Queue: 2 jobs
Job 1
Amino acid sequence: MAIKKSNQLIPENNISIKGLVELSSDKSLSIRSAIFASISYGISKIKIKNPGEDAETAIEAIKALGIKVIRNKNLYTVYGLGIGYNSKRPLKISFNNSGTTLRLLTPLIAGSKINAKIIGDKSLSKRPYRLEFLKQFLMNIKPINGQYLPIKIEGHENCIQSKVKIKKPSAQMVSAATIAGMISYGETIIEAPNNVRDHTTRVLKYLNYPIKVQNKKSKQIIKVQGRRFLKPLKNYNIPSDPSSSAFLITIAILTKGSIIKIKNVCLNPYRIGFIKVLKKMGARIIFSNKKSYFGEPIGDITASYSPNLKGITIKPNEVASIIDEIPILLVVALFCKSKSIFNNLTELKFKESDRLRVMYKNLILCGANVTRVKDNLIIDGINNRFYSSEVPIIKDYSKDHRICMAFFCLAAVSRKKIQINDFDSVNVSFPNFLKTINDLKYNKGKKILVAADGPVACGKTSILKKIVEKFGSKKATFLDSGLLYRYLTLVHLQSKKKKINTNFLVKHLKKVSISKLQNPKLHSIAVSNKVSEIAKIKLIRDELLPVQRDLIFNCPQQIVLVGGRDIASNVVPSNFSDIKLYIDCDVKVRAKRRFLELKNKKNEKNVNYQEILKALKARDLADSTRAISPLKKTKDSILIDNSFNDISRPINKISLLIEREIKKH
């Protein structure tokens, strides 16, 4: 369960989601619909499901400009008065955190008989307003602080057509130029990149406004007539937001057992670039029920668990179509089997936050292998810091809603505890985000990971194997991490090398398999006497960690029992295991059991109790005093005493703990 305190959230880990859902209305379409309804001639009826703060900002802004808006639940009735606004008194209008509202409404205000001062919140005020080209329309716009808010507008109704060339792949800038052309006299011609969202031109074409678009290789030419009649939007039920869908899709493809269907999503080709990227990675995503609606393609999206995702390279010309989804795609890249490269992320620096800097800094904080080369990011999985018990705090990110939800997903698809400050920032675009996740949450069959440490020959293996028998091999499995060290020890002994060749042994890790860990020779006295020497080598322990974790987290069974010396303290510490045990037993009892065990084996001769006792004491000392990952009982481990003859006692106690954990879900 997610833990929320004040405006800080620690998301629930390792969740699965399943079901059918229709999400909040698309933010970009909601803002455009409200603005175009306000300058249409007639009454528009628009249904905006769970409008976020940005959409509400746009609606409040047009109301401040004299437009009558009546709300009945999610239905907005907008009484449009035609192109332009009118106000006899000076206005002060806040666009809060909405860059889209800023760039789409500014030319309409400047082309109307209005004097206004435009302000924004702290985040919006740090972003350049990027509308210098509006001066070409004879619009009088004066930023008070260089290129930043606040701005003063001395509006007039005599703006004229212009030829505008926009070099940056920004849908907001292209839309601003288009709208400036609509409120000016004559025909405006805009040359711009053609790899940007085209919601503005689509809705205008649907409403039969005189606008033409011609595509030429990497650019588009838009011709728009000014001061023409714009029809109202009649009964427009705005489809679900694909950018919001990205977060649910991410959880679905990264968590076992997940499958979701998201209804009535806007499938504009410039909005689903992230899905194309995910499919290249190997994600299982399909579209269905596709149709055209108010000029936009819409349909349903089904996403399901997709193991073995592969890394990809994002080309510079692909960034514009995935600009809002880059943060969540960086999270997905962490769990790919190979490296991902994201090229030319410069535009991320001009969003609600400097997303390039914020994502880079916080991914490192969470334990990601991420490299920044100028404005490019290289993601190559996770490192040992990811498994630290320290809880990273995501803060100072300018309350950027997409950053916030990206790190929520990182926690939700893994066992990594993450604290996210200013979590209410999700309300900008996805106000019912947590409720949606909770409604879809499906934890039946959730993996239960039991980490069991203890000294050699304490009975861990026997106890944990008996528990597997009790729950059944289809539901439970046992992994003895110590066998990996024994496997390498046997490899060393069989090589006949006098000195331990670490690089030679590390190469053999690539050849390890479950079947090789079942070799009876791994339990010989020769291996037992040498294994602690192998196990204390730092390079070997470092190289073994990802191998161990890969075996643990990719087990198909629901209950995974792992035995070793540093499982709870190092391999799966803190929240990465559900139950932590320290199984102990008096050393003399252990020596006696090992003596009887070896004596009954045909291939073991000259078995001596005192030698076994001496070897066990030496091994205990070596394991507990080694500098790297020593054997110890962690504070959150439950002590299980196996010094008694009745093995059923520890078995029953551990089984009860597992059953309680299962009932939680």
Job 2
Amino acid sequence: MATPESVNYVKRGLIQMTANWSFNNTDRSAVQQLEKFLPAKIYDIHAHIYRVSDLNLSKPNLWSSGPPDVSIPIWKEHISRFFPGKQVSGGLFFPAPTPMADLRGENEYLLEQLEQEPDSRGLVLVTPDFSQEELSAYLDHGQIVGFKPYHVYSSERPTNQSSIRGFFPEWMWKAANERSGIIMLHLVKDMAIADPANQAEIKEMCRRYPHAKLILAHAARCFHAPHAKAGIEALRGLDNVWFDMSGICEPEAIKTVLRQFGPRKLLWGSDFPISEIRGKSITIGDGFLWIDSNLCDMDKLGSAQPVLVGIESLRALHLAADDLGLNARDWNDIFYANAVRLLSLKEQPGNLLKELHLHSKSRLPGSVPHLGNKAGNMESSPWPIYFSEARGCEIWDMDGKHYYDISSNGIGSCLLGYRDADVTKAAVRRLEMGSIFNPPDEVELADLLCDIHPWAEQVRFVRGGEEAREASIRIACATTNHTVIAGCEYQGLSEECSFKYNDLQGLQAIIDQYGPKLAAVIMEPCQNGGLETDFLKQVREATSRCGALLIFDETSMGWRLNYGGAHLQHSVRPDMAIFGNTLGNGHPIGAIIGTKAAMEGVHGLFISRFESICSAEAAAALQKMGKIDVPAHAARIGGRVMESWRRNGEKHKVPINTSGYPSMAHFSFQHGEADKLRTLYMQMMLERGFLADMWIYPSLSHTEEIAEMYNKAIDEVFGEISSIIAL
């Protein structure tokens, strides 16, 4: 139903077929196409309300082309047209930031309007000239939850090239931090979030004031879509940053936010009354352009009938969400639940992680998922069991808590980091092309493996490291027509068929006992942080003499020491080598590579096929690892972590021992209560945002910056553990 104010500006003749503030049949048809994707409840995180008389405009513009009082009821009337049949439950409101506005009048009008809307919240429009007393008085209002700074009030000129501190000084960050307040930030400078100075200032302030909640308006002002790809990733790891997508009319920037931060960090906003402009913003050249009535005569567009910006923005969101496969829960998060959580409008449900864990135990007998953490199977473990998102070395649990994974990183298999962009692109391409049974990607991958391992001639793929082990043993038995398998400190083999690392006599005893029945010796080419080339050569000679095959198991080291596996660092050629999920950067694939003679037994065996998409993922992973020295990076980060363990252990007199390769590093407490100290350490690290156990398998996504944050946390935690040990 139209309000008296809306009737007045209709009578003034401002609404025409292509006019702003109107809603025509083209708009209605566009909304109907989007309706089925939208959730039942809507919360607008970015909307302006104001009195035109407070704006002190020098000439008419969009702000003055609507009703004289742009109230919350006016907002609701217009926004509800985008969501027929849905409940528009509230919004986060703030005044119109015009250069000569009466800020006191604008903010007082905001307070008056909020009094009538208990489910809505507001941000006061602020300038650097505000006093702390004036700001505190506004923040004492129960519905004011933070600040809306804007560049037109900057002390720097020109204001559209201002630093953030030019219009939002640090003392305001501190005030937001003290009250867990929201900052709605409209970035400026030509490159917006792609500007290195903007990135640096955001990271510095967000880390210094972690309780301040920063919303980067307009997807970090990425109206020029390439800025999103160039800049948003730089903010990864900041858990107090959100994005609204108000006014964004192209899907690319929204997709970048979703890829880098996920659906729980994106909020729908209308940017009302910008949502009432007929037209859209587009990327053009090295900037962006608003196609609206200021640019062209919208009545002369012929068959192209423009719709409102609010609808174009919804279209862009739909395209982005559809491309990324978002589900109904994600849509509800973006349009409603994220805002409710951010604004603390409702008491949140209990521990979803714990509830899901308890339910899984009744539904999945004997199966409790974990990330390579044995403590994950123990009731007393503080380790989160289920996770909703993972990117790089960052993980989010079911309750939205953020952690850096300073542990196994996908049981050691995600050497490039979780959801690596290149591997993901390869997976999406194969899915889009069709996940066929015999993809050409597997031939490409087989050729790549044989190029990396010149001694190998043939490849067989399976679905993981365990299957690769089992299949290699079956192949060896079929090829040699023998049945006995010996192993070097290898799990799953009988004691009489096992020998220790560097124990050539133990191997010879097995050969002497089983002789012609020995099909193969399977072993890791390195253990416990040391490679013994002479021992490997002696094993090679011994197996060759007795007619047994030599299988190198590279599933654990996973290319961490060398591109292609640890055995390539030595001039020892096995008959077969096996690899696990590291091939696909954590995706389920395994491989057995070998000489043609060693692989002969394959032809008489049934070996399960692997999912075809995994060959595309693995090819992308290996190609990327071939261009970047990932083992050197992993060793550098792991070495830094090991040094942190040792240095802080000595500093705080915490008895520890470090072991292993830097790229697969371990430490242990040398104390009578070591198990309890381990649990305590894990809990303390979780409280500081680190998923940490007694080891780290570094990935390409672990940066020096993350390693330093972990070092500071280790310093604190070892200090507390030292105090407990001393009791």
